[in-house]
Design goal:
The chain is α/β, with parallel strands linked by helices and about 350 residues long. It contains 13 helices and eleven strands. Strand 4, helix 8 (about 160-170) and strand 5 form a beta-alpha-beta unit. The radius of gyration is 22 Å and the shape is globular. It binds pyridoxal-5'-phosphate. Pyridoxal-5'-phosphate binds near residues 79 and 208.
Length: about 350
């Protein structure tokens, strides 16, 4: 594909034409003011009586410093899940356009495709859980607007080969969504430093994993300002609430804490990986670059039920492509990991 489609050709025509809702807090911003009679708020019960900043400026400024990208390249949403849904709504015409994704991967890409009535095309990973740009392009046609990659991938745990991601970014005529939810746990940097080189790249990251803030519901999308502007145009005006904005900002001041958790979890990952390999019902512990293991066991449904009875919940991936008899196991605290290993050893002894 020699001449690439422009962003205007990729975005849905109705979204291109859309004039966004302008909220009170959009029209007024900056300048000193002390009397706010513009948004029909209750003047009592400060500070929760006021609508939050719809553009999350203070939080984005802090994230821009940490991530070394311009604040204008950051979109914030109610979890990564909001960003995933919005890229469908912005770029995919229901029943006309389609997307291509690696398989297996994170389930929300397909759920959002179905909600938006967009055809979802899967391209199976190889036996090392790697993809080929050529196979992805082979599944695409002129109606393919988006491709979904996830690196490190969920549920397989591995980073995708950098050269293939680059090849796809070069060759594909639409947008590549690269989900880096687990990048903090990986041994190499993600694609954020290359963001400016790739106008068709959307990187997703989240506060839900390394940052330890799953309850806040805060997802980040990094992309060109043009793409971010489109997502901002169609989001709910106050999609990230005040408590989330404030707590996430607080977390950015304690970046070292996130880094310390990551170091601890990586050490625990090494311990747990070795311990799992020593358990009789475990057939294969796949290599991981994330904070979880994909593990092939002798009988995944039976082992899953047994662990539930022990009060230990893991994720069965038994019915997922390439993951027959596999469990996905999150790295926990040392105590939790020990409890899991004791339970697995007891199972092996009983069976
Ligand atoms: C956990 C996870 C997320 C996080 O989603 P949020 O909505 O931000 O909590 C995103 N992508 C992948 C692949 C995940 O596994």
């Amino acid at each position: 594909m020699s001449s690439k489609r422009t962003l205007e050709q990729l975005v849905r025509p109705n979204i291109l034409r859309l004039k966004p809702y302008s909220s009170a807090r959009d029209e007024y911003s900056g300048h000193e003011a002390s009397v706010f009679l513009d948004a029909n708020e209750n003047p009592y019960n400060t500070p929760h009586n006021r609508y939050p900043d719809p553009m999350q400026r203070e939080l984005k400024a802090a994230l821009a410093r940490i991530k070394h990208v311009p604040a204008t390249s950051i979109f914030l949403g109610n979890g990564s899940d909001e960003a995933i849904d919005l890229v469908y709504r912005a770029f995919c015409e229901p029943r006309v356009d389609n997307v291509v994704a690696i398989d297996p991967t994170y389930g929300m890409y397909q759920v959002c495709a179905e909600v938006n009535d967009v055809e979802y095309r899967k391209v199976l990973l190889d036996s090392h859980f790697q993809f080929s740009a050529r196979a992805m392009l082979g599944a695409a046609d002129e109606h393919t607007k988006l491709m979904f990659l996830c690196s490190p991938n969920n549920p397989t745990g591995n980073l995708l080969a950098r050269t293939e991601v680059e090849a796809l970014l070069q060759a594909f005529d639409g947008l590549v969504v690269l989900d880096e939810a687990y990048i903090d746990f990986a041994p190499e940097a993600g694609f954020l430093p290359q963001l400016a080189e790739h106008p068709n790249l959307i990187i997703l990251q989240t506060f839900s994993k390394a940052w330890g803030c799953a309850a806040l519901r805060l997802g980040m999308a990094f992309a060109s300002q043009e793409i971010v502007d489109i997502l901002n145009k169609i989001k709910y005006p106050y999609n990230v609430n005040l408590l989330t904005q404030r707590q996430a900002l607080e977390m950015t001041y304690r970046l070292y804490e996130k880094d310390r958790w990551v170091d601890t979890l990586k050490a625990e990952r090494t311990w747990l990986g070795r311990a799992l390999q020593g358990v009789k019902c475990v057939q294969l512990v796949y290599p991981t670059d994330a904070n979880f293991f994909l593990v092939k066991v002798t009988d995944a449904p039976a082992l899953y039920s047994y662990l539930v009875e022990c009060g230990i919940i893991v994720r069965s991936r038994h019915t997922v492509a390439l993951c027959g008899n596999c469990l996905r196991i999150t790295v926990g605290t040392h105590r939790e990991n020990e409890q899991l290993i004791s339970a697995l050893k007891a199972y092996a002894q009983a069976g």
